Amino acid sequence: MGKQMTEIVMPQLAESLVSATIDKWLKAPGDNVSMYEPICEINTDKVNAELPSTVAGKFVKILVGAGETVPVGSPICLIETEGSADAEVRPDVPDGASTAAAKGEEDSDSSMRHRYSPAVQRLAADNGVNLTFVNGTGIGGRITRKDVLAFVASGGPANQPGGAAEPAGTQQKMPVRSSGLHLSETPRIPTIPAIEVEGPSQPGNGEHFIDVTPLRNTIATRMRQSVTDIPHAWTMIEVDVTNLVVLRNKLKDEFMKREGVNLTYLAFFLKAVINAIKDYPIMNSVWAVDKIIVKRDINVNLAVGTEDGVWTPVIRGADQKNIAGLAREIDDLARRTREGMLSLTDMQGGTFTVNNTGSFGSILSYPIINYPQAAIVTFESIVKRPVVINDMIGVRSMANLCLSLDHRILDGVICGRFLQRVKDNLEGYNLETKLY
Amino acid sequence: MAVMDYIDAIRLAMKEEMTRDEDVFVLGEDVGLKGGVFTTTKGLQEQFGEERVLDTPLAESAIAGVAIGAAMYGMKPIAEMQYSDFMFPATNQIISEAAKIRYRSNNDWTCPVVIRAPIGGGVFGGLYHSQCPESVFFGTPGLKIVAPFTAYDAKGLLKAAVRDPDPVLFFENKKCYKLINGDVPEDDYIVPIGEANVLREGDDITVIGYSLPLHYALEAAAELADEGISAHILDLRTLQPLDKEAILEAVRKTGKVMIVHEDNKTGGVGAEVAAIIAEELLYELDAPIVRVCGPDVPAMPINAPGEKYFMPNKDKLKNAMRKLALY
Known about the structure:
By secondary structure, chain A is α+β, with helices and mostly antiparallel strands. Chain A has helices spanning 97-105, 118-127, 145-153, 214-229, 242-259, 265-279, 323-338, 344-347, 412-427; strands at residues 3-9, 19-25, 32-33, 38-43, 48-52, 57-62, 69-71, 75-82, 232-240, 285-287, 292-294, 300-306, 309-311, 314-315, 352-355, 375-379, 383-389, 392-406. At the A-B interface, α1 and α2 of A face α8 and α13 of B.
């Protein structure tokens, strides 16, 4: 309980008043003042009144002399009071503490880092800015409109690291190839998971780390097991698919209309492969050290690539399906793979693997066998090329088929025959071919 | 040019218009002999006589009805509602008669009436002396509504209102009367109805408002400038019709918008301004639109802490503006 100095302020005596004039002081320094005792008289445009003290104590000092006009809220005198601080007459101290505290927290918080306002998205689109590289100064690390403007002003898109350094999380989808025809001309856009990057990726910092996902770990283990255990051999054959292109172009629109799925080249290719396997069942087998197990059912693994890996779902009883049925299966599996909706049974029981490497523009590849199968075949891009036929040059749609084989089970001759049969089947497609 | 208070600018406007045009007259409660409870009409009766400065009975419906009838007959009345709170008995006359007569008569009749009414709280006036009735009239086509903030605009807009061929509600802010002052030319100028005004240029946040809260916004902006926050402040001045172009231009400056008024948040002028921005400028927005308004409670509290809680002030605006700038 100490002595305390209290300011008495000019009160608002009437509505609309913003100032008042001290007419006469009724107390002088040294006087004792009791609660509500008049200390001065004041004049305003509207009223004249005595001003009662709001505290009890000893009158110390006059701050505003008689005749002076001061704004409402100005201190006019000091009174020394006894007692605790709750005699304080000015309770309204602006409190900026809460906002200051909020400001302190924001540095570590990045919860708003990927929340883009309409203005930010529009500016980024207009200026070709990849927001991944823009520093966010807003609350929670949010990128503000001004951050984008500053980024553009500072050289903008030129600052963006290009090429390989570009994270897979970006939405920019560039066409992967510029020649030939895609096997599936309307691939569905896969959902793209963001790659976890340890720490901020800074320009000039030459490397960053990517956590190995369970999927990537599985792929790595299988691939190593396959190339370690299986002595791979490789061969390739060239196929003229001109007639197939004509056939598909004729049927695809009608097929889409009727079936609701894309009639892909892959369906024709699968049918050609499956029919060839029927002729050469040894292709559909497994090495079992002291024996070779030839599988009767033909269950074809279809390699489906996503942004973060590759999956090999199975078309069961593939030899029982016609081209239309295969097209439907392909569409279903590819979609479910990209949507992450595959079940365990979708992945089991495969006996032979087909990879549609042409879909990403390859014309030649060296596939690794899907362990423990005997062989894997790829269907490369269809490319128009000049070809010599009967000593004349013609423009033909050509595609390569690549085959990797387990040399413990298979040899060149049998594989050559197998590929030749696939080739014959593919080149045998014509306008008379039935889908059903 | 003279520096004068907001209230003096209003009085000067009436004086000039009454001098200029004999058809202009003033009527209201205590506007004559007493010169108005706020002294807004002080000296007018002495100068222009009892027939042009009329003390009326305590009946707002009569004040509005007489003024509207006189206006339709060719006079240019300035009707004063002592407080805008008392305006509601006259609401039927204003909305159903004044606002609609031009439309209803297919342009044969017009109603060039001005109805002045002091709005706003913060003067310990409590329930009956603090209301902001803008939203009651805001959605009524046929009415023009102005709500000046500066002394310059108070004079210029009142003169424009008197000369306007249609009914104009002139919402003057009673706390601004003596709080706000500024340069007011003593010559004959008007501020066109329907034009907003940029009070302060800035590029971090845009504050849109009208009347008294702009005073706090300007104070807050001055302090925030020290923190490196630059506020763009737009005074709507006219609420009906809103200056859409000026609103959109102000929003484009920053993409972060705060709308401020003392009237209730729900259904207030700010709701319409926000809707216009959302309709026109979605892709310019960098933050959710913020509204700092009076709370949706039935009345201004009479007790001081309650009134303080209700009223906008510098610190409330400053905190909200800082938060928006940091967003």
